[in-house]
């Protein structure tokens, strides 16, 4: 029997989830059940895998098990950019291999399109808007990076618009940014509403259990998956636990557990909205990957996301006071007209990255499959990986499956891995400078 050694512990700081108000009581796993497939983790990967397994095999029973509430996990704590192409701007290198870059874009777009189809077919209310993302620079160095990114997009024949500081002030209400690149095809959503909607609209042959932490697994097949109040026996197990994936003992030293952090203001008052001006809904990606993501929401809240923290235990609460102070500074740099607007919520979310940038998507043991580690952009990529994994399990591979079936490289042994990741994170923060 394998005791799961890394277990999520969430707080109630996730603004996206909390502003939705009281949720119905969770259906908790109780008793001893049998299922044709069990999926652990209701993030984008697990939700997609469970849905697709059930769609392709309507006579099969599928059980999806989530440790906490659906929507209070990283999937519902993220910034809500469903992206179609690279988030992290690499001025050099992005277009070196244009054919591969085009395939990656096609992969993300397949994820965006599948989500689009589900959201509109099922009537999921999650503020789905094709606003695109604006990569914005606050410094001369950032502007250089944007120019490199524009060249990369030209090389892969992607459309975009360039904005100057005046146009950005008109859109954002702040004159913090000097120039921007608008990539028009990404979607902005309320992420907690999206994941709750995805879980609530599962095919009939899927049962979703929340507040049901998997504590032990007897790997078979058949496998027995245990929680505090129940168990499921199944010949087929999908692990989609991402930032907590290492806890299942199968990915030792190949995932890098990171936390990234978000904060959300209270709603601006009518006077504050009038003083700010600009659009009611936008998403800003920083010119430097270690910079600050910003969302303004139709409910007049502003969201700040920055910093990556290495956390061996994937703790989403440790160090949150310092993170909140850093977020306040980033907020006031951008919105100096609001010295008294406070954050109502601050939270962390656990991710898994790999050293060579490759995710996990495929068979990992007899009767065990896994999908995780999408390098921090899992809304589109996690969704499509989960879908392709399910198709692969049932012998129906998509031609793009090869793009997600990666092999994460081994990490340096600890403590060198932790030191390396921390140093890298500090160095990148320092490089981001004003973009943070
Ligand atoms: C602040 C923040 C901002 C982000 N912004 C974006 C963005 O704008 N766009 C984007 O694409 N991505 C973004 N991301 C990344 C995105 O959230 C992840 O890539 C995505 O959630 C990964 O999906 P997943 O299904 O692999 O993992 P998760 O969403 O983490 O889901 C894994 C699930 O497994 C569950 N689990 C783990 N262990 C157990 C267990 N023992 N028993 C039961 N359940 C278990 C967890 O509770 C969790 O729900 C952001 C992340 C954060 C934290």
What distinguishing features does this structure have?
436 residues; alpha/beta; FAD/NAD(P)-binding domain; globular; binds flavin-adenine dinucleotide
Number of strands: 21
Mind telling me the C-alpha Rg?
Answer: 21 Å
CATH superfamily: FAD/NAD(P)-binding domain
Number of alpha- plus pi-helical segments: 12
Shape: globular
End-to-end separation: 45 Å
Description:
By secondary structure, this protein is of the alpha/beta class. The protein has a single domain, classed as FAD/NAD(P)-binding domain (3-Layer(bba) Sandwich), CATH 3.50.50.60. Helices cover 32% and strands 23% of the residues. It is built from twelve helices and 21 strands. It has helices at 15-18, 44-56, 74-77, 98-122, 140-155, 165-172, 191-200, 270-276, 320-334, 378-393, 401-404, 416-432, and strands at 2-3, 31-34, 37-40, 62-65, 81-82, 133-137, 161-164, 179-183, 187-188, 206-209, 216-218, 223-226, 230-234, 237-239, 256-265, 282-286, 293-296, 302-310, 343-353, 360-365, 368-372. The chain has an eight-stranded mixed β-sheet. Strands 10-4-3-14-21-20 form a six-stranded mixed β-sheet. Strand 12 (223-226) and strand 13 (230-234) form a beta hairpin. Helix 2 packs parallel to helix 10 and helix 4 (98-122) packs across helix 10. The longest helix is centred in the N-terminal third of the chain and has 25 residues, at 98-122. The model has no long low-confidence stretch (mean pLDDT 93). The structure holds flavin-adenine dinucleotide. Residues 4, 7-8, 40-46, 65-68, 73-75, 77-81, 83, 213-214, 240-244, 260-262, 305, 349, 351, 372, 374, 376-379, 382 line the site of flavin-adenine dinucleotide.
């Amino acid at each position: 029997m394998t005791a799961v050694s890394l277990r999520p512990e969430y707080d109630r700081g996730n603004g996206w989830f909390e502003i939705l108000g009281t949720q119905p009581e969770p259906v908790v796993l109780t008793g001893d059940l049998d299922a044709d497939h069990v999926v652990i983790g209701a993030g984008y990967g697990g939700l997609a895998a469970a849905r697709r397994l059930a769609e392709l095999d309507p006579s099969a029973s599928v059980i999806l098990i989530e440790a906490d509430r659906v929507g209070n996990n990283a999937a519902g704590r993220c910034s809500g950019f469903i992206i179609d192409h690279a988030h992290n701007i690499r001025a050099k290198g992005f277009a070196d291999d244009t054919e591969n870059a085009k395939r990656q874009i096609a992969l993300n777009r397949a994820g965006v399109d599948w989500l689009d189809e589900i959201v509109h077919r099922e009537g999921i209310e999650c503020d789905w808007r094709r606003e695109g993302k604006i990569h914005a620079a606050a410094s001369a160095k950032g502007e250089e990076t944007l120019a490199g990114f524009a060249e990369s997009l030209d090389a892969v024949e992607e459309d975009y618009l360039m904005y100057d500081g005046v146009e950005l002030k008109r859109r954002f209400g702040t004159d913090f940014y000097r120039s921007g690149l608008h990539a028009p095809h990404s979607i902005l959503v309320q992420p907690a509403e999206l994941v709750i909607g995805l879980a609530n609209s599962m095919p009939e042959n899927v049962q979703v259990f929340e507040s049901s932490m998997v504590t032990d697994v007897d790997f078979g097949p058949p496998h027995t998956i245990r929680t505090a109040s129940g168990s499921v026996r199944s010949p087929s197990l999908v692990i989609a636990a991402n930032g907590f994936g290492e806890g299942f003992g199968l990915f030792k030293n190949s995932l890098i557990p990171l936390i990234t952090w978000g904060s959300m203001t209270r709603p601006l008052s009518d006077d504050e909205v009038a003083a700010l001006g600009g659009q009611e809904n936008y998403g800003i990606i920083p010119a430097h990957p270690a910079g600050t993501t910003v969302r303004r929401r139709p409910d007049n809240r502003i969201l700040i996301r920055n910093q990556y923290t290495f956390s061996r235990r994937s703790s989403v609460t440790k160090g949150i006071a310092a993170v909140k102070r850093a977020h306040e500074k980033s907020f006031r740099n951008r919105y100096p007209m609001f010295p008294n607007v406070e954050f109502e919520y601050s939270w962390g979310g656990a991710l898994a990255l790999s050293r060579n940038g490759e995710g996990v998507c495929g068979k990992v043991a007899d009767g065990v499959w896994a999908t995780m580690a999408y390098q921090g952009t899992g809304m589109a990529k996690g969704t499509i990986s989960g879908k392709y994994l399910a198709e692969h399990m049932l012998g129906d591979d998509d031609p793009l499956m090869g793009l997600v079936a990666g092999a994460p490289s081994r990490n340096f042994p600890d403590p060198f891995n932790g030191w390396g990741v921390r140093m890298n994170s500090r160095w990148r923060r320092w490089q981001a400078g004003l973009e943070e």
